[in-house]
User: Fold Transcriptional regulator MntR from Allorhodopirellula solitaria.
Amino acid sequence: MAEENRTESLQICSASWCGHAFQVKFVVHTGRENTRLIADYWMPFPVSPSKTKSTKAPKSFSDPESHERIRMDHSSEKAEDYVEAVAEILKSKDECRVVDLAAFFGVSHVTVTRIVKRLVGEGLLETEPYRPIHLTTKGKRLATASRKRHEVVHAFLLAIGVDEATAAHDSEGIEHHVSPMTQRCLEKATAQLTR
Assistant:
């Protein structure tokens, strides 16, 4: 009798903000309908009403506040990616040029030039035509915060069993949508999972 080929997969069953705690449920799927809950984390997180607009969840996925935050996250993605890339390139080289960013992102120098011009206008980068690109103080702060968020998401994905390649890829997109509160909760969950 041939043994059935079984694969297990770890998934987040649910993650929700419940007043003053973040609940994450992890399940393992071990076949067709065999599922078992392996972890149910409640991470209390005190929230000062003066520091947040509201602790209640949006009424629905079509809530305008949710979509406004997503639009803001999307609009800052390029800026975060570019300042993070400039910081990364400057770690390995003395200077960062348009050609370096074009190679880093796999895009044309025209695309990089357009985005760099926008980021200079936003006070994140400094450059002159045909000169190296530098981070402003504001750009350095954004690059550091972005790198930290990326590392937190990456570590969390590894802690829940996501393979390295997938975690590296997924954390690149997820990092832009992680609020400071969620970042702190992910750090706590990662610490609990990796004890």
In short: The beta strands are 9-18, 21-29, 35-44, 125-126, 134-135. The chain has two domains: 7-48, 66-195. The longest strand covers residues 9-18. DSSP finds six helices and five strands in the chain.
